[in-house]
Structure formats: C-alpha cells, structure tokens
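Sequence in, structure out.
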Amino acid sequence: MSLEEERKGLPADEIHAGDDRGPVFEPSPAETVAAKPANKSRSLLGTVIEIVVIVVAAFVIAMLVQFFLVKPFTIPSVSMVPTLMVGDRVLVNRLTYHFREPKRGDVVVFHSAQLSEDLIKRVVAVGGDTVEVKAGALYLNGQRQVEPKLFEQNIQGTFPVITVPKGYVFVMGDNRNDSEDSRVFGPVDVKTILGRAFAVYWPIRRWHGL
C-alpha cells in the first residue's frame, strides 16, 4: 500500500499531525502557561528601564539647558519693584554676554561675593561712565536721568561721583530706596554676571518681557 493510500485511511487530525518532514509537536497547555509569566516579567522590566532612561535623559537635558542656555530665577526681594515682585520667576539668558557686553538698561543676574548670593538688578552704567546720585536723581556722565520705571522718582540720600572701571557695570534696583546695590557693594565685575533676565514667566498673570 502506498503512503498516499495509507493517509486516505487516517482521520484528518492524524493526517496533519505529520508529513514527510516528520511529526509536528504542539506545546502542552502547561508549557504555554509557564512561559507567559516570564514574558510578562521581561516586558515589565523593559518598561521600567525605559521610563528610568527617559527621566534621567530629561533631567540631564534640563540641567544642560540651565547651565548653558536659559536659567530660571526667583525674585527674592522688593529691590526691583515695580518691575519685578517678590516671588516672580524670570528666565535668564546665559548666552547674551558671550556675544555682546552688558548695556545700560539690561536687567542682569549676578553673583555678589560680598553678600554671598545671586542678585538681580538693572545696569545703569558701564565701564568708563561716571555715576552720581544727588538731588533725588541719578546723574550719568553729568546728565540727570529720567527713569519712568522707578517705584519712587525721588531717590533718597546721595552717592559721590565715581567712574566705573572697564570690565565692570554699576547696578541699581528699580526700587531705589529699598535696594542694596552698587551704592553699597560697588561696581560689579562683568565676569560675575550669570546672564540677562528677559521675561517673567510666572505667575502667568504677570507675564511680560524685560
């Protein structure tokens, strides 16, 4: 009897159980059940690893952005009222002064060695300028300055005329009568400037550029 004739006499399920290549074996239900937990465990571990990698990458990117590009800064005092209120959060461009020198009117964040903290003030004079406070006003290079952004127009006290050294800036708060600034600790070395504040981003109702 030929192989084809033998197959004709077998039930369909037995015919498909094997062919010229040999029998086909299906895994038992017990083997299938045993494989599923292992697959799930490997899948869960892969997901956890992926989440950890994403979080670490996001943290590293955020740190690099803060260190090289844009740094957030929270306003600690009333010295820049009304431009900046206590608790306002601003964005500081760390690249600006890699391409140009500070200019009068810039709002800058710098590290004060005398006060051992980072401060934010407005640049009112640059290297080579003469600065003086008298008769309730700021005098720059002998000219009385009109400063509409100040909290109070009448500046209390006086400050003798000085010439700002090259490589330094003279900074003052917009709240001149409640600000520790260059009138207290002198001109600021440009090298200590961390960047230029360019926008308030929080709270949203106070969003504005600087």
